[in-house]
Write a structure and sequence with these properties.
mainly alpha; Amino acid/polyamine transporter I; 18 helices; about 425 residues; globular
Length: about 425
């Protein structure tokens, strides 16, 4: 995939149209890593947070998803660029620069975030199997874990391209599953426009906004994207790559990120719009099961089944990527490699136990996204610092506009999390 030699002139006689088609095919061949990372943005936690927001508050929080998706495009591009330019993942670079005590502390918080992510994804898949087949939730969690092992087996054999194709296929199913209902119950255009204006309605909407932010700007996706881009485009960090070749990869990555996150953003916003147009005023929509029942009652059983299939695909794809991300974090920060299959079994246990004792799955999904939101500053701050460093990134260091946008994003995220902390510890969010 790397272009390590000088530019080869195009043979004479090749028509411009053919050269253009060849250039497009070459660009398409470089796409993929961002679509794997983007799966994290449409996981079951998104479903719980977005459906809850739309059902309870209509179009009020549309602006949160729009802002979060813009931020996601920015930070995922920075992460991918870091991996391509340096030939190292973000966790690896942090592992080299942090002192041992800080490196272990950083790993603990990153691992907690990854665990919360995996919990949400396994639980979401289990709920989908319950909706489709009536399977008990603990059994569904075990089945989701087993299928995710099969998906991870593709990646463990160092076959990243087939893994990307599988994840992209599941992303297609997710898109159809979560957006099909909009064709039957389209949203109110005026309500959508009004929802683009920032605003809250009490502490609970702040809690939901933090949950939606944590479900949209995913810390583990930021960590893993640098590794995915590195592994795909520059697996050997010691291999000299000419600047023009790196620039070509960076340009392709920009298109990769924009396309992948555009799909994820449309799905996220579509879920909220569907809930706002279909579930408003309906009872029991504070759970995924209740929301599914309301969707089925209002839009028909076919849409209900399609929705459940989308939820299942979301759980299967995202838990595979989440487990891979956890392994990337541990290997980069601690230099410890645990086989993906072993890690899959270990991270599956908490979800099975919680479901077995009767823990509310939807509330667990929302809380997991709140935990994720707390982890966002810990990944955004070092990412902005590293990608702005000319000594590390050379000519590919972030420009002024990108640095300003990144700093603004970090400030907004930190401010929202401080408010969330205050609401949590004062109990205001539950009133």
């Amino acid at each position: 995939m790397l272009e390590t030699t000088g530019h080869q002139p195009t043979p004479a006689g090749h028509p411009p149209a053919r050269r253009l088609r060849g250039s497009r095919r070459a660009l398409l061949g470089l796409l993929g890593p961002a679509f794997v990372a983007a799966i994290a943005y449409v996981d079951p936690g998104n479903v719980a947070a977005n459906l809850t927001a739309g059902a309870q508050y209509g179009y009020l929080l549309v602006w949160v998803l729009v802002a979060a998706n813009v931020m996601a495009v920015l930070v995922q591009y920075q992460s991918a660029k870091l991996g391509i330019v340096t030939g190292k993942s973000l966790p690896e670079i942090l592992g080299e620069r942090l002192r041992p005590v800080w490196r272990r502390a950083f790993w603990v918080q990153a691992e907690i975030v990854a665990a919360a992510t995996d919990l949400a994804e396994v639980v979401g898949g289990a709920v989908a199997l319950y909706l489709l087949f009536g399977l008990p939730l603990p059994l569904g969690a075990v089945i989701v874990g087993g299928i995710s092992m099969a998906l991870l087996a593709v990646q463990s054999r160092n076959q990243q391209r087939p893994f990307e194709f599988v994840i992209m296929f599941l992303l297609g199913i997710i898109t159809v599953g979560f957006l099909a209902g909009l064709f039957i119950s389209p949203p109110d255009p005026g309500g959508v426009v009004a929802g683009l204006l920032p605003g809250f309605q009490g502490p609970d909407t702040v809690l939901l906004a933090a949950s939606m932010l944590g479900a949209t700007v995913m810390p583990h996706a930021i960590y893993v994207h640098s590794a995915l881009s590195r592994d795909r485009h520059r697996p050997d960090p010691h291999l000299h790559v000419p600047p023009h070749a790196v620039a070509r990869l960076v340009r392709a990555t920009r298109w990769d990120v924009v396309a992948a996150l555009a799909v994820a953003g449309i799905v996220n916003i579509g879920m909220l719009l569907l809930a706002a147009s279909t579930l408003g005023g309906e009872g029991g929509t504070d759970t995924i099961e209740g929301a599914h029942a309301a969707i089925t009652a209002n839009l028909g059983p076919v849409v209900g089944v399609v929705f459940a299939v989308g939820l299942l695909a979301s759980g299967l794809a995202s838990t595979s990527v989440g487990c891979y991300a956890g392994g990337t974090i541990m290997q980069g920060l601690l230099k410890i490699r645990i086989p993906l299959m072993t890690r899959r079994v270990l991270t599956l246990i908490p979800a099975v136990v919680l479901l077995a004792v009767g823990f509310d799955p939807t509330w667990g999904l929302v809380l997991s996204q709140v935990v994720l939101s707390f982890g966002i500053p810990f990944v955004l701050v070092p990412l902005v610092v590293l990608t702005s460093s000319k000594s590390l990134m050379g000519q590919f260091a972030d420009g002024l506009a990108l640095r300003v946008a990144a700093v603004v994003s970090v400030v907004l995220v930190v401010a929202l999390n401080l408010v969330l902390l205050w609401l949590t510890f004062t109990g205001a969010a539950g009133r």
